[in-house]
Design brief:
Chains A, B: This is FAD-binding oxidoreductase. Chains A, B: It holds the Pfam family FAD-oxidase_C. Chains A, B: Belongs to the FAD-binding oxidoreductase/transferase type 4 family. Two copies of one chain form a homodimer. Chain A is an alpha+beta fold and 536 residues long. Among the domains of chain A are: 268-381, Alpha-Beta Plaits (2-Layer Sandwich), CATH 3.30.70.3450; 386-481, GMP Synthetase, Chain A, domain 3. Chain A has helices at 18-28, 39-44, 61-67, 73-80, 97-110, 166-174, 192-197, 205-208, 211-214, 242-245, 279-291, 304-313, 317-329, 348-364, 373-380, 388-394, 411-427, 461-481, 500-519; strands spanning 57-58, 90-92, 113-117, 137-141, 148-152, 157-161, 178-179, 215-222, 225-229, 254-261, 263-264, 268-276, 298-302, 338-346, 368-369, 397-407, 433-439, 446-456. In chain A, the strands form four sheets. Chain A has a seven-stranded antiparallel β-sheet, with helices on both faces. In chain A, helix 4 (73-80) packs antiparallel against helix 18 and helix 17 runs antiparallel to helix 18. The two termini of chain A are 39 Å apart. The model of chain A has no long low-confidence stretch (mean pLDDT 96).
């Protein structure tokens, strides 16, 4: 069953080996494992629902609790310490667009606030009911809307109900020889509709495209009516309304169906790990690979600290020791070497040609390939890494990640500024923070910058929340000051809403809000996502 | 100097050879060359300007005449027959964003309607002042805003003032070893800003991207304020406001600056002509090439009638005869064979690999390559073909083109329906129409369908206008009924405005209009483009 206060299936247990723990102790200090609140205690504190009865509503305490939290560290802290705050008043599981519409109309009638939910994997607070809003809250869970409605092999288009989760979507496609290829780390529980409305990016987006490139059309149930977006391969007919849905985060309506661009299963797929002597060589290499339009499916460059951390947490000290000695002989020294993971997908001839072209570029940057061994390991664990959050928590460590994207000239300074902001936020309260970074998505124009922060949770809820908020604020400010977007792949939600205006500008925010007022004049969907709280 | 009543530089004369004329006579009948109206007569009929004096305004008759027409066939008919109708009251040539803003503010003050203009190459009536609007009209010509403002080689971004024309833009980039690679047929006179606000697509968009993929940020002067769009390689921070500018056709504001994604000049570039035995083979081949993500820069497939027409109009009857006999021996018969032009750009190794992969696909579809000879010819004439319109007019023939894009299952029926609609519209008045089609842009999901119609102009303005309107209406209706977008690359303007709702829906149109009301509450920019005329 899905864990109520952490990531994933509660049947999956990830344990840290001794070497990993020693490494973390050395980085941020020893810890006392925390005592989590019990589910029963949390449920006992949930007040009665403020919504009237309706045949589609579930007002059970557990359903309401589960529907009110995602995976932001703030959400975790509330659940783990049992300080849950406002929860949804009822949960509905509509099974059709018509039921979504019925529920929206009903919510307006009874004066409820509506929060749509796909897979509840948000790391930016989307699902949390707002503080200080007198209206009862209805959460629309889209998880029962998961059917494959149509598959057109000629156009390589599949239409799904938007609540379908990643594995279910891929399974339905694979049964017919197809795939989508959208693999964010949250893949196991994330929904197609959630991907679209938060502009999600997957690990192999370099080949298959960010969700913006996959989303070909769909159906949005807005409070004022139904917006049907037909599929065209391309169009010059005015502004593209798909782009008003992408990133709208439930403020303009509820996405109930989506057509996506699918692919045949690739004849060949390889992931190859290459080490480079230092950051400058690694950055120059990935930039040249991206700008050369080789067609790789993935470029993922860990900085020296992340490379070191990955190797230390991997276990297999003996094998890793041999690897490091080999790399050292080839010019990639401990302390400075960086790891690059490359993905190659396609026809056998295509993959062969891409590899040859990549090899020639990497050689010039003094790259040392270790073949597909580490790549296979990465592939096998690509959705398991996120379970580490549970294992680290059990040992008293919290993990958070923050990310942006910037043009190339800003990349190195942004990486340094994000890590430094995190370290400084903890130094101010006499704590240490282990910060490391990778470029998760590399473009011709620039790159995402994805930084992980590991730190001691803190002795109690207030201390832990204060640490997290100080970290979040410091890093978000570093992102904005460094000219980055507040998010490359996590979305805005409530946690990033205060920083959106820095990039959209006052005129841009006014336009986005005007569109919300157009689609949702009664602010039925205004729980504070995207724009933050406004006076009602 | 630029021709006032046709395409391009009036120093360029294109003459049809006898074989071409015979071919056209056979298709649609003999003609009487028309007598064009003289510029002096047209100018003499232009009324006095209704606008007060302003230091930035030119109220000269010729400037106003030239600013009021683009290249739609409707525009041509008005100019060639001297039935010019409403013209702009004044033309301004702002030299900065600040002057654009000053002019917008002034226009509001004096109650003028503003029509922004880039290179005046619109084929859908953007520049024509509306009939039946009491307000005086001010045309903002952006052609003096043509500077390269910044070039960032690391991010491969160049920022230009938006009025820069294609050749000037490429020349400024090439001086530093760079290129944009946006080549619509109107390249010679089309502006960067015009490309952005009409969602333009170039001949090599398969590699360099449609303008949507090139447009990284910019500055929009709206009637209510300035919208500044920063550049990020990618972002998940809410709806992407660039997409509200793309396709906005001057209804939301005036684009004054644009940052675009540029490329290094390719090491190698080849265009190769391949013939295939029939349409089915050609369509299957281009679909497989596009879906295989080979990275080609161009795929352009002419149907049998267009292939025949291209060969007949090319001249060199002897050489073409030899070519056709060779193709016939290889299985590509006259009457059924289709011509595919492929573009390969990139590093030498990359081009080599792409060619090998393309060859292997084309062989399976019975393609016969003729090497780069026809490709070089195509490349040399890529922007000259449009001058044929002048040569045909001089012989009494009008040419118009209409285009859409549809998912693959609809492509063959759409092609047939568009050609048939054109032929039927002329048959109804006892005339013939020579219709032929190519797929100008091929995607994994589907294709553009681009049909050309050649017909006799008609004895006078009213007859010619009636023929053209019957054609336009019939083909637009065929497009809409066949599930196509009303435009893949020409834009909406005034000519396509009545058909936009068919794809956007009532909800979509309401949202697009709400955004116009937000940015332009006084309808300063509402000349009828995009949404058609509304009551003031």
């Amino acid at each position: 069953m899905r864990r109520w206060n952490g990531w994933g299936d509660d049947g999956v247990t990830t344990v840290l080996h001794d070497g990993a723990l020693e490494f973390l102790h050395a980085q941020v200090g020893a810890t006392t494992p925390p005592q989590d609140a019990a589910l029963a205690d949390a449920l006992a504190r949930i007040p009665a629902s403020r919504l009237p009865a309706h045949p589609l509503l579930d007002t059970g305490a557990e359903a309401r609790l589960r529907a009110s939290f995602g995976q932001s560290l703030g959400d975790w802290l509330r659940l783990r310490f049992g300080r849950i705050g406002p929860v949804s008043d009822a949960v509905a599981w509509p099974e059709s667009s018509a039921q979504v519409r019925e529920l929206l109309d009903w919510a307006r009638l009874v004066g409820a606030l509506v929060i749509p939910c796909g897979g509840a994997t948000s790391v930016v607070g989307h699902l949390r009911p707002p503080e200080g809003d007198a209206r009862p809250v209805l959460t629309l869970m889209l998880g029962r809307m998961r059917r494959l409605l149509a598959l057109d092999p000629l156009s390589q288009l599949a239409r799904f109900e938007a609540g379908v989760l990643g594995p279910d979507l891929e399974a339905q496609l694979r049964a017919q020889g197809w795939m989508l290829g959208h693999y964010p780390q949250s893949f196991e529980y994330a929904s197609l509709g959630g991907w679209v409305v938060t502009r999600s990016s997957g690990q192999q987006s370099a080949r298959y495209g960010r969700i913006e490139a996959m989303f070909a059309g769909g159906r949005l149930e807005t409070p004022t009516g139904t917006l049907e977006l037909p599929t065209f391969p391309a169009s010059a007919a005015g502004p593209d309304l798909r782009e008003w849905v992408l990133g709208s985060e439930g403020r303009y309506g509820v996405l109930t169906e989506a057509s996506v661009r699918i692919s045949r299963l690739p004849e060949r797929e390889d992931f190859v790990a290459v080490f480079l002597p230092d950051w400058a060589a690694g950055e120059a290499a990935v930039r040249e690979l991206a700008q050369g339009k080789l067609g790789l499916s993935m470029l993922r460059l860990a900085n020296a600290t992340e490379t070191l951390t990955t190797l230390r947490l991997a276990g297999h000290a003996g094998a890793i020791g041999w690897l490091e000695r080999y790399l050292s002989l080839r010019g990639c020294q401990p302390g400075s070497k960086v790891m690059l993971m490359l993905g190659f997908s396609g026809g056998a001839a295509q993959v062969g040609a891409m590899k040859a072209q990549a090899r020639s570029i990497l050689r010039r940057h003094r790259g040392v390939s270790t073949g597909t061994l580490l790549g296979k390991k990465w592939q096998a664990n690509r959705f398991k890494g996120v379970y580490l959050r549970n294992a680290l928590w059990a040992q008293g460590y919290a993990v958070d990640t923050m990310e942006t994207a910037v043009d190339w000239p800003r990349v190195p300074a942004m990486m340094a500024a994000m890590e430094q902001a995190g370290r400084a936020a903890f130094a101010a309260v006499g704590e240490r923070c282990h910060a490391y970074t990778h470029l998760s998505h590399v473009y011709a124009q620039g790159s995402s910058v994805y930084t992980t922060f590991v730190f001691r949770i803190g002795p109690d809820f207030d201390a832990a929340m204060a640490r997290w908020q100080a970290l979040k604020t410091a890093v978000c400010e570093a992102i904005v000051q460094g000219g980055g977007t507040i998010t490359h792949q996590h979305g805005v939600g409530k946690d990033h809403a205060p920083y959106l205006e820095a990039e959209k500008g006052a005129e841009g925010m006014a336009a986005l809000r005007a569109m919300a007022d157009h689609f949702d004049p009664d602010r039925l969907l205004d729980s504070g996502n995207l724009f933050g709280r406004r006076a009602i």
